[in-house]
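[step 3/7] fold_predict: job queued, chain A
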Amino acid sequence: MPHDPVPGLLARATEALEAEFSSLPAFDRAIYSDTAAIASVLDIVARRLGDNYPYFHPLYAGQMLKPPHPLARAAYALAMSINPNNHARDGGRASSQMEIEAVAQIAGMFGWTEYLGHLTSSGTIANLEALWVAGQTAPGRRIVASEQAHYTHHRISGVLQRDFASVPADVHGRMSLDALEVELRKGNVGTVVVTLGTTAIGAVDPLDQILTLRDRYGFRVHVDAAYGGYFCLIPDSLDEPARRACAAIGKADSIVIDPHKHGLQPYGCGCILFRDPAVGRFYKHDSPYTYFTSRELHLGEISLECSRAGAAAVALWATQRLLPLVPGGDFAHGLAQGRTAALDLDRRLRGHDLFEPLAAGCPELDIVVWKSAAKTLSRASELANSIFLKSESRNLHLALVQLPHSWFLPAGHAASGSAELVTCLRSVLMKPEHQEWLDRIWRELTAATAEATGESR
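[step 4/7] structure written:
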């Protein structure tokens, strides 16, 4: 592992925090006094944690796992000395204010100054709130989302007892506008979930065109930008369809984004934003045990969750203080580096006869997928699994994904089995370091592929 600066950063900050409470009388904390025993257990914990993939390393290029910034880790740990609860200002006075300020920066990234929003423990809970509010505004109406949308939307619809319909995707992995309009003509659609950055391939649904359909059919637009929302900071690095979608995001009714994905935050840190602050009326409650020390609306009054980690807000605030969410800034530059690495890997794959990338074109964000060249789908899937394992033995960690075979066929070309799924390799190049390490990643990938195909002959 690289040198960890967090312990050193924490030492000085911990002293400063202790000084803030130095006027309090001392008291015994006997339960914490056996530091030798605590250290012994921590040694065991460290060894147990070694049983993990090296998510922090550039050679880990598999799932959506981006290491939090050292400042985020340090700020989170420092806040845990107090363990604030952002359910109310009584439980997290400083961290609640920091949450309000951090969320305002995220909303500003989408051009919103008037909104309602807060942090959540995950993108799933953030999406749950969005669809719950949508149901309150239009009771009994259906929810529709792309077949490539995260499965959580179908599951959440079941929890909320709302009818859900899955809309087919096109060869780009985007929601098909023709298929969406078929659902809209059936009537009773209350909410269309638009995905900016699908989990499988990072596809960006055509938000700008879906908003045009909203004008005609009258439905609520919820944007699940849990993965792709931050790419709105680097529009010039995106292809035109994704750029248009990002430009239109401010017209959505609600937006979800996950700072614990591209936002350099520890798990769990999601964020939900509503364009109309008046939806806060749906959260109104009058419980006798609520907090009354503040006349201002507290965060627990606009969240389905009650207790929430104030430390997550502190970490996010600190990170955004160091790396503001502005185009051209250091944070945006890190996103652009991952995007560049993805385009470079895709280019190399297209020039190699053992790989078959997506026929529709290059990645929209920083996720790259490809299938192995083979005479049959079963052989292609078998090779993908073999390359996955052989890459791992070389310390290159990829991921596997099942995609429609038709996505790898030339435009207009139909073949037997084109509707079937094939196991493919997938790489999420979301670390800024991936750009610098791409030569090494390519070397290990091609060596693992040569080994796998050589053994299969």
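[step 5/7] annotate
The first strand starts at residue 116 and ends at 120.
Residues 40 and 46 are 10 Å apart (CA to CA).
exit 0
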